[in-house]
Automatic annotation (TrEMBL):
Single annotated GO MF: zinc ion binding
Signal peptide positions on this chain: 1-20
SMART domains: ZnF_NFX
The gene coding this protein: Nfxl1
Residue spans crossing the bilayer: none
Similarity annotation: Belongs to the NFX1 family.
Pfam families documented for this protein: zf-NF-X1
Organism encoding this protein: Malurus elegans (Red-winged fairywren)
The name this protein goes by in its record: NFXL1 protein
Keywords: Coiled coil, Metal-binding, Repeat, Signal, Zinc, Zinc-finger
CDD domains named in the record: NF-X1-zinc-finger, RING-CH-C4HC3_NFXL1
């Protein structure tokens, strides 16, 4: 591959060699055959058009840094890299070299730190990156300009100061004329010829407006004859004569000399007869030296395009490239291939096209054909189009294509209320156009909505003004266009005539009957109280006041109350006033029905007290039967003593004797069952051992084991009969 030094684009070595060859042929095609290949013309990069000389045409394959020829392939390195340190000098040159490994593309900015001062050398030196070592302190430059009278007023800058912008009266070089000119160009020439007498006294100076002395007369001193062999010393008024000798100057042929006598002007052409050989070397002929000799024999060799013969008369054998134009349309679709007839695909179009911004001040050159896909350059000039709204000037924005962006300045038009419109300019608002087109039928496709730019009226004024509501509850800021008395949506809240309720109407206007009236009193517009009296009644009175809502205290309640007694079995009718005015004891007696309490005590017996409130007394006087643990003995005891655990009945000696006998019987049964289980297990063990011995394989005899009856089995009937008899007697 080969990498361009300008754009660092990578091309195949064979492709770039073919491109360079075709480019050189395209440039040198207008030349004659004799000049072909002699003059050094540059060839451009296919992408950036960076020019290279003919000698710079790549012929060998190098790595990116140019140190190693034919770098070896290494999977751990960048392709086409030698792996060594780059060491190329940074651009612009700063004295340091790139420390990265051999890499494609441009070297990064120099990363070293240096201590530098600003452009004007006024600020203190500071450490900065070498790539950004040039910086400005923003102070006035102050350096003396070239005019020698004024100092530079620009801020600290790089390079030479700009020419002095001031104007002054200045004389020309010869001092004859005076004119107002820029201070930056103090020296200027007028159009007059000097005309001063030369030292010879015969001629005048023919130079135009010059400084210093005119010098000696150009015709004075020693002069040579036209052939240059004889020197004469003559006054400046006389011309130099010819010497009469032969001229002997070498003619244009470069072989023979001029045979004429010394003469003025150019020598004639060489007319000597010589024997010349044609360019192809096949024929010879005697003819004048100044005439070239070309025979009529046409060359039959095939040119490098491998399509056409040379067909050039008297060809020297070094056939030039095919002179027929390719003529195929290039990839740019604007031009045809101007190269000579060639093999393979055509090269990219060598022409360049200017792509301009909207105002035309910013221009970039791109290869032909890319102007349709490349974006126009970004222009840093401000847009100079006049504003399309009512403002005198538009917002500053850069050069662009298409319409200017909508104006965002405040409208500032005076509204009817006197305030200024604060919203953004709306002289060119984008509005959707509706109803402009009516479809001919259901078969017609609905078109997209059209948008038009039109001026919209100013919106209503939104300046806040303090406004009090109708009911004088609050003062709120309202927009200027709707600054009228309003309803705050609260309840009116003014005290009605009943002095118990307030007006529940929504905030409304209230007319004051007199100026001294309280602002919290209801007016004629307020509602009338239609509620019942809701004042609190005496404690225990469930009835409402029979009067409508009124001021002052309510009358006494005379209604009868229907109340159940404490036991909830009887219904009593009592006057409400008596019940509410009675104390606790009197209420207890009034609500009692005077009957026995029907409630059950925790023990399950009925309460013996008269109808009462609250829980029943815990002491029960009912007589109940108490038994011992074996249920054989019993006696009557008061219920309250049993609940308190004060009464109990213990078993006597007979009860204990019966318990002992029952325990012995149970123990004897358990012991007999254990012995029976042991015998059964012994029998199973012996049977299992007999099977293992295998004495009788086909016919096995069942062993009869005589089990001796235990003492319990022998005498259980004699023991159990008396026990069951005693139990039946006890029951």
């Amino acid at each position: 591959v080969w990498s361009c030094c300008g754009c660092f684009c990578i091309f195949h070595l064979v492709c770039i060699q073919k491109w360079a060859k075709d480019s050189l042929f395209l440039v040198s095609s207008p030349l004659t055959d004799d000049d072909f290949g002699k003059k050094d013309y540059p060839w451009p990069c296919p992408k950036c058009r960076f020019e290279y000389q003919r000698a710079e045409t790549p012929s060998r394959y190098y790595c990116y840094c140019g140190k190693v020829e034919n770098p070896a392939v290494d999977p751990w390195l960048v392709p086409h890299s030698c792996g060594q340190i780059c060491e190329r000098e940074f651009k612009p040159s700063c004295g340091h070299k790139c420390l990265l490994l051999c890499h494609p593309g441009p070297c990064p900015p120099c990363p070293k730190m240096v201590t530098t001062t600003c452009h004007c050398k006024k600020a203190k030196p500071v450490p900065r990156r070498c790539s950004a070592k040039e910086w400005s302190c923003r102070l006035p430059c102050g350096r003396m300009l070239l005019c020698g009278q004024h100092a530079c007023e620009n801020s600290c800058h790089a390079g030479d100061c700009q020419p002095c912008p001031r104007v002054s009266k200045q004389r020309c070089i010869c001092g004859r004329q005076t004119a107002e000119r820029l201070c930056a160009s103090p020296q200027w020439q007028c159009d007059q010829v000097c005309g001063k007498r030369l030292p010879c006294g015969n001629h005048t100076c023919e130079q135009v407006c010059h400084a210093g002395p005119c010098g000696d007369c150009p015709r004075s001193g020693k002069r040579f004859c036209p052939c240059g062999k004889t020197r004469f010393t003559l006054p400046c008024t006389e011309d130099v004569p010819t010497c009469g000798d032969s001229c002997d100057k070498v003619l244009e042929c470069g072989i023979h000399k001029c045979s004429q006598r010394c003469h003025r002007g150019p020598c004639e052409i060489c007319r000597q007869e010589v024997e010349k050989q044609c360019r192809c070397g096949k024929h010879t002929k005697c003819m004048p030296c100044h005439k070239p000799y070309l025979c009529e024999t046409k060359c039959t060799k095939i040119r490098d395009c491998q399509k056409h013969q040379c067909r050039r008369k008297c060809c020297s054998g070094n056939c030039p490239p095919c002179d027929q134009v390719c003529g195929r349309t290039l990839g740019c679709r604007n031009h045809k291939c101007p190269s000579g007839c060639h093999r393979g695909s055509c090269n990219p179009c060598p022409e360049t096209v200017d792509v301009k911004c909207s105002c035309g001040k910013t221009v970039i050159k791109v290869p032909c054909g890319r102007e349709r896909t490349i974006r126009p350059p970004k222009c840093k000039q401000l847009c100079s189009r006049p504003p399309t709204c009512h403002h005198s000037t538009q917002e500053k924005h850069y050069c662009h294509f298409g319409r200017c962006p909508p104006c965002r300045q405040p409208c500032q038009k005076t509204l009817t209320c006197g305030h200024l419109c604060p919203v953004s300019c709306h002289d060119e608002a984008l509005v959707k156009q509706t109803g402009s087109h009516q479809s001919a039928g259901p078969w017609e496709q609905p078109s997209e909505p059209a948008f038009i730019r039109t001026a919209l009226p100013c919106p209503p004024c939104e300046v806040p003004l303090p406004v009090e509501c109708l009911g004088q509850h609050e003062i709120s800021p309202l927009p200027c266009h709707s600054a009228n008395p309003y309803s705050c949506k609260r309840f009116c809240g003014r005290l009605l005539d009943c002095e118990n309720h307030t007006c529940m109407k929504e905030c409304h206007h209230v007319t004051k009957l007199n100026s001294s009236a309280d602002g919290k009193k209801a007016g004629p517009e307020c509602s009338q109280c239609e509620e019942e009296c809701t004042k609190p009644r005496p404690s225990g009175c469930p009835h409402r006041c029979v009067l409508p809502c009124h001021p002052g205290d309510c009358p006494s309640c005379l209604q009868m109350l229907k109340i159940k007694c404490h036991c909830k079995l009887s219904v009593l009718y009592i006057e409400c006033l008596k019940l509410t005015c009675a104390d606790l004891k009197e209420k207890e007696l009034l609500i009692s029905c005077k009957n026995q309490c029907p409630k059950e005590l925790p023990c399950g017996h009925r309460c013996k007290e008269i109808c009462h409130s609250g829980s029943c007394p815990p002491n029960c006087s009912q007589k109940v039967k108490l038994r011992c643990l074996c249920k054989r003995l019993k006696k009557e005891v008061q219920c309250s003593k049993i609940q308190e655990g004060q009464a109990s009945l213990e078993c006597d000696a007979l009860c204990k004797e019966m318990k002992r006998k029952a325990y012995e019987i149970k123990e004897a049964e358990a012991k007999a069952a254990l012995e029976e289980e042991k015998r059964r297990q012994q029998a199973e063990l012996e049977a299992f051992e007999n099977r293992l011995k295998g004495r009788r394989k086909n016919k096995r005899r069942k062993d009869e084991v005589e089990v001796e009856q235990s003492s319990w089995q022998k005498y259980k009937n004699f023991i159990m009969l008396p026990v069951f008899g005693v139990a039946v007697v006890m029951v």
